[in-house]
Design a protein that fits this description.
- Helix 1 crosses helix 4 and helix 5 crosses helix 7.
- This protein is of the alpha+beta class and about 350 residues long.
- The strands form five sheets. Strands 1, 2, 3, 4, 6, 14, 17 and 18 form an eight-stranded mixed β-sheet that branches. A four-stranded antiparallel β-sheet has the order 5-15-8-13. The chain has a two-stranded antiparallel ribbon with strand order 7-16.
- It is built from seven helices and 18 strands.
């Protein structure tokens, strides 16, 4: 519930580790960036051929069904950066224009399966998302940010990992910005220590009508969960719009003036040039973000007149891989509240739409 706190917790302390960074200091992109070479692109083409040969639906296509003999090792390095490093990584040079939308979607899915396990993005069970402007507005409580062209302030998504890959870019705007959640946490401790303990209070988040029957229309979670020791990474969950929107439910505890002061401070620090990192994603870039360690934002955008050229971004929500492999199967766990579909989707056996030739 809003305002709930653990009285036994020790006072907040500044964090340390590679996940604590400021955008202005990130001058070595090779640490978190992978540009695909010709041999790696050939591996992707071969994996796509294998996926077509097996003719499985995306839900049945695993990392084993999208084999990447050497690229898998480089993706594993990036997975280490996501889990134990900066908390974000970019793969550049995926030949989207050559592949076309259907094959590029398969490649996006296949690369994602080497990093995590796809989880539903809405209550309809959607696992491969399409981010584009549908003409809707966030003033409608049933609308989510990815369905609009509006600016989206810094927030976290509802999965361990967020993956984005543009198929086409807007006429103007749509810039992605990232910020270290731990760095924002430390700034709150420094600038307003009187607000610091509120970071660990539990708040209610509006599900924006995206929940299964019988589930509450909101969920509750602390903004920050912390392990023992200052050198351990924090887990942050923040979406001011959803927190404030949840106030429409009369049973949700009321926000206090100090809560709004905290949110104002978080937003101001996250958006400052000192802390944020701005990224102009190009067609063929694949961005992956650890939502526990990194918040992201998107600027408003204006689209092209032609429907064929309007902004279109593929999206995956991924759960962390955890546990030993057993007979080729991977155990998975997510630390987020995964959306439970209204209906259970069946993986199916074959793909009725077929992979493109």
């Amino acid at each position: 519930m809003t305002g709930t706190r653990d009285a036994d917790q020790a006072p907040p302390v500044p964090r340390s580790g590679p996940w604590v960074w400021k955008g202005q200091d990130l001058t070595h992109p090779e640490e978190w960036q992978l540009r695909l070479s010709a041999p790696r692109l050939a591996e992707i083409d071969s994996a796509l051929h294998e996926a077509r040969r097996r003719d499985l639906t995306l839900l049945r296509l695993t990392a084993a069904g999208f084999p990447l003999p050497t690229l898998a090792g480089e993706l594993a390095r990036l997975a280490g950066v996501l889990d134990h490093g900066r908390g974000f990584a970019i793969v550049r040079g995926i030949p989207v224009e050559r592949l076309g939308e259907a094959a590029a979607s398969t490649v996006f899915w296949g690369l994602g399966r080497h990093l995590g396990h796809p989880v539903p993005q809405n209550a309809d069970g959607l696992v491969l998302g399409h981010v584009r402007d549908t003409g809707r507005s966030l003033s409608d409580p049933a609308t989510r940010g990815y369905q609009t062209r509006e600016a989206l302030p810094f927030h976290t998504d509802g999965a361990d990992l967020l993956a984005l890959m543009p198929l086409s870019t807007p006429r103007t705007g749509g810039r992605i910005s990232l910020v270290s959640s731990a760095a924002v946490h430390d700034a709150v401790l420094e600038l307003r220590p009187d607000l610091a303990e509120r970071l660990y209070r539990t708040y209610c988040f509006d599900r924006r009508e995206d929940h299964a029957p019988g589930e509450p229309p909101y969920t509750a979670a602390p903004l920050v969960s912390r392990p023992d020791g200052p050198a351990r990474a924090l887990s942050t969950r923040y979406n001011r719009r959803s927190i404030e929107s949840a106030q429409r439910f009369p049973e949700v505890p009321r926000l206090e003036p100090a809560d709004h002061e905290l949110f104002d401070l978080i937003d101001r620090v996250a958006a400052s040039p000192e802390y944020r990192l701005d990224l102009d994603l190009e067609v063929g870039d694949l961005l992956v973000v650890n939502t526990h360690h990194v918040m992201h934002a998107r600027s408003a955008f204006e689209d092209h007149e032609s429907p064929d050229h309007r902004r279109h971004v593929l999206r995956l929500w991924l759960a962390f891989p955890r546990g030993p492999r057993s007979q080729g199967a991977q155990h998975w766990v997510t630390l987020r509240d995964v959306i439970r579909p209204r209906h259970t989707a069946s993986p199916g056996g074959t793909n009725p739409r077929r992979f493109p030739a």
